[in-house]
Amino acid sequence: MTARIAFLTFAAVGYSLTSGAEPTHSKEGLVTAEILFSNDPVTLAYRRAIERTLYSTPGELARFIQLPGHTDPETVVSLYQVKQSNRKYMVSCTQASSSLWETIPRPGAIATKSASTIRVLRCDAEVSPTMASAIHDIWLRMLTNVTPELTHPGVVYLEGTMEIFTAMNGSGRELRGARPHEYAKNGRVSALIELAFLLKAYCDPPPEGRDVVARKLMEAVKDFSSR
């Protein structure tokens, strides 16, 4: 790849309209992902654009979708088994060259960009069967018992990134969940996001190399499994 794939690291923040203080509630689990999986026409068109453009590989073991806050590009990380081989597993990362959201017409607004102008940056890397199985188990663990997000009177969330996770369970059903607006910085949700970022870095390694990222990824998996 000539251009490295970038991840946005800011998140939506909630503030009270009455006191200006941050809300104290935090979640240790994922919440439902209506932001991408509802069936209203605009959301459906946006989801189909993401799937058509960035779902260039399977992602049955684990998938991570990062939606930007405004005009930044969408990113998808996918972990999957290569169908032609029983023991080969791959992680792929795809990122739009610019925002897919801007290609979607909305009520009262026309699309500001043509989908034909969007290019896709992609990287791929093989992962061990042990690592693939461990990450799949973590995704399934977090995607079990996903609940609607709690709301707080007087709290408004400023726009930021949104992280969505999916995986197929043993019955072939796709499980889905999203990062809550409020979560503990040292909790399971935070650790799950770190794992997703490390998967991306493993696929598209920084200057220190893939081996360094692989060690960090293994440590993160062990840390999560001990929670």
Q: What do you see in this structure?
A:
With 227 residues, the chain is an alpha+beta fold. It has one domain. The chain contains five helices and eight strands, in the order E-H-H-E-E-E-E-H-E-E-E-H-H. It has helices at residues 34-37, 41-54, 129-143, 188-203, 210-225; strands spanning 14-16, 62-67, 75-81, 89-96, 120-127, 155-157, 162-168, 174-178. The chain has a six-stranded antiparallel sheet with strand order 5-4-3-2-7-8. The radius of gyration is 18 Å and the shape is globular.
E-strand count: 8
Ends apart, CA distance between termini: 36 Å
Indicate the radius of gyration in whole angstroms: 18 Å
Proportion of helical residues: 25-40%
Number of domains: 1
Strand arrangement within the widest β-sheet reads 5-4-3-2-7-8
Poorly predicted residue ranges:
9-26
Strand composition percent:
15-25%
Largest sheet: 6 strands, antiparallel
Question: What does the overall shape look like?
Answer: globular
H-E string: EHHEEEEHEEEHH
State the secondary-structure class. alpha+beta
What value does the average pLDDT take? 84
Number of helices: 5
